[in-house]
């Protein structure tokens, strides 16, 4: 089990323990893509690109200097595949608060 942080549109981010990658598909509602934000090094954002334009915007990201939006549910994971620590959770929460 590893701890990840799930962020749904219009809701606070919450830590969740998952057993593996199959659960990521369930959390984001289908096939997922991995996105990174230049301002959140060491983390990956798991998103469902099929939610683009269908589900509400969640928050903006900047990847390689280009602004884009995360649509639908987003799951934050560590790039190295390890569990998020309490400090990591707070880092992501501060990141999300700065996006508001």
TrEMBL record:
It comes from the Bacteria. InterPro entries: DUF3846 (IPR024559). Residues 2-95 form the DUF3846 domain. This is DUF3846 domain-containing protein.
